[in-house]
Amino acid sequence: MKEVTKVGAQGDVLLFRVNALPKEAQFVKPEDGKLIVTHSETGHHHAVEARSGIELYQHATNPLIGWLKVNKEAAHADVVHHRPWHTHETQRLLYSDSPTGEVIFEIRRQRERAPEGWRRVQD
Predict the structure, then answer these.
(1) Which residue of 14, 28, 60, 66 pairs with 56 in a disulfide if CB–CB is 3.0 to 4.6 A?
(2) Domain tally for the chain?
(3) Which domain, by its residues, includes 91?
């Protein structure tokens, strides 16, 4: 498990700390007890266990950008790659001292060029 306070990566996902949620951030409800950081066509999502003190947000118009908010009560959020083989190391996003009592990690999903144009990387 890798502990992250500023920048981490997991497969096709880049996670980095930012100062605040932008106005384009829209709250995302958990799915089956998980906050899905990135969906996978084959079902091996990158996800965080839904629990008190952790919230997921998605950009209103750009599906490649999202945010995880971790408050002091939660202390951390573990981004787990849900696949039984060739998994990526878990990224533990740590709460660290913040005057607001919460830290925000931006989620950037990689994209790739395909004959039909740009698309999300398929991990």
Answers:
(1) 28
(2) 1
(3) 2-120
